[in-house]
Write a structure and sequence with these properties.
This protein has about 475 residues and is of the alpha/beta class. It is about 30% helix and about 20% strand. The structure holds nicotinamide-adenine-dinucleotide.
Length: about 475
């Protein structure tokens, strides 16, 4: 049997307990693994390293390419980035896979309905690119970046994952009705790629309806693919459907590295008490063994977990009475059930996960035409919209551009409308060329900007372009 090398990050709080439980179960299932133990998280932050991830840990992961990790504490409010997000981004683990299924005897309002679904969340783009700026002292901005390449990778991963588990249906959940370019990019990519997988049903669903359906009829879903923030929230909701964080495993998959961790955090108040539930990380270990193509050991451990629960053995998160057992006793029970199967609870047949090929840079969209027709200039001003609008019209009069409209937090407020938004000091001022056939030059735009800067503080600029004749920008609410 080939020996595997895996980087092991015990993590913070309850991390070392659940990690040790998982190592013991994997060893008892007979899979030889050489663990490279590495640090990340709270202890590293305390040593003054702002990323929370030392170079030696990065080097170990670059070598082994597979990580089993406990939860890492994220300091709140003093500027450091999350060590979890750093690891996901440094190794471009673009796909977060979170399976949930009903488990024997674990009480939920959905018991007996056979929930068995997987949320596949894009893991590195979207609002989590972490590009934030204070635009004025009172207005903050976070950029939602979604790339065609990122969408293609996550959509293909969702279909490949469905195939590897013999699943028949993939839903793509987006907010494309409101964010037509960003969320719409995932919807369009999904609809283009789905016909390449004729064996799998493909449906688009609006994310809010998806959440409603998840609460009412969760058993209808098989695989759900979604953008980063939607997936973050929705996958915690799906963990709740099957009995909570103690049972929710996850995998972060990239083209070169995979990081396996439970969905839950470091639960500091339970650290070292031998009470928490190790199932989430043990099932995460099952996902890791499948990734390492140790299919029979993975199935044996999943069967053992099912048999242990079926035998009525539970930790305190499931039963609050004296019958609950501790973390190590539960782990011993799983080990004792290795080799047993349940007649009622099955384990899915698995095929190797065929990761989508990396797309070449030439796959990027090449436009036939691109025309710059104006610009949105964002201005900080403590004025009413009519005073600001009239002054900007006067400022732009000698230039080839004119003020088309001003919006405040996305709603058109100039030329005046009957709208009554509660305006803040952050104005998007849309200038377009007087001649719609012309091309806006940088020199003309900079002339306008200099004229504006003589009177106002501007903090942001976006060019308005037509891509192949279609606007590559959206209208303001109320703009015609
Ligand atoms: P948490 O998941 O640590 O705990 C929330 C609650 O869930 C706990 O109080 C406990 O009641 C329950 N719970 C969690 N895991 C359990 C288990 N294995 N068994 C039984 N019950 C369990 O969430 P939190 O309190 O919001 O976060 C604590 C810390 O963990 C924070 O610093 C946070 O940033 C970090 N965190 C890390 C990760 C990660 O490393 N991937 C994920 C989430 C949170």
């Amino acid at each position: 049997m080939p020996e595997h090398r895996v980087t092991l990050i015990p993590g913070d709080g309850i991390g070392p307990e659940v990690v040790q439980a998982t190592q013991r179960v994997i060893a008892a299932a007979g899979v030889p693994i050489t663990w490279e133990e590495c640090a990340a998280g709270a202890s590293v932050f305390r040593q003054g390293l702002a990323s929370g991830v030392p170079q030696s840990t990065i080097e170990s992961i670059a070598r082994t390419r597979v990580v089993l990790k406990g939860p890492l504490e994220t300091p709140v409010g003093y500027g450091e980035k999350s060590a979890n997000v750093t690891l996901r981004k440094v190794f471009e683990t673009y796909g977060n896979i979170r399976p949930v299924r009903e488990l024997p005897g674990v009480p939920t309002p959905y018991q007996g309905r056979g929930i068995d679904l997987v949320v596949i969340r894009e893991n590195v783009e979207d609002l989590y690119a972490g590009i934030e700026h204070m635009q004025t002292p009172d207005v903050a901005q976070c950029l939602k970046l979604i790339s065609r390449q990122g969408c293609e990778k996550i959509v293909r991963l969702a279909f490949a994952y469905a195939r590897s588990e013999g699943r028949k249906k993939v839903h793509c959940a987006t907010k494309a009705n409101i964010m037509k370019f960003t969320e719409g990019m995932l919807k369009r990519t999904f609809e283009e790629i789905a016909p390449e997988y004729p064996d799998i049903e493909a449906h688009h669903i609006i994310i809010d309806n998806c959440c409603h359906q998840l609460v009412r009829h969760p058993e209808q879903f098989d695989v759900i693919v979604t953008t980063n923030m939607n997936g973050d929230i929705m996958s915690d909701l799906t963990s709740g459907l099957i009995g909570g964080l103690g049972f929710a495993p996850s995998a972060n998959i990239g083209n070169h590295v995979a990081i396996f961790e439970a969905v839950h955090g470091s639960a500091p108040k339970y650290a070292g008490k031998d009470t928490i539930n190790p199932t989430a990380l043990i099932l995460t270990g099952v996902l890791m063994l499948r990734y390492l193509r140790e299919f029979s050991a993975a199935a044996a451990i999943e069967h053992a977990v099912l048999a242990t629960l079926e035998a009525g053995l539970y930790t305190r998160d499931v039963r609050a009475d004296a019958g609950a057992i501790g973390t190590s006793a539960f782990t011993d029970a799983v080990i004792a059930h290795l080799g047993q199967t349940s007649s009622r609870w099955t384990v899915r047949e698995q095929q190797p996960l065929e990761l989508p090929k990396e797309s070449a840079p030439t796959a990027m969209t090449r436009l036939k035409s691109r025309q710059t027709i104006g610009a949105d200039i964002f201005i900080e001003a403590d004025l009413d919209p009519v005073t600001l609008g009239e002054s900007l019209q006067e400022i732009s009069a000698p230039t080839p551009l004119h003020l088309k409209m001003i919006s405040n937090r996305g709603t058109k407020v100039y030329p005046p409308t009957a709208a009554v938004p509660d305006c803040v000091d952050h104005w998007r001022c849309r200038f377009v060329l007087n001649d719609p056939q012309a091309e806006l030059t940088d020199a003309a735009l900079l002339d306008l900007l200099n004229l504006i800067a003589a009177r106002y503080r501007w903090m942001h600029l976006e060019k308005l372009c037509d891509f192949d004749g279609s606007p590559a920008y959206t209208r303001a609410q109320g703009e015609d």
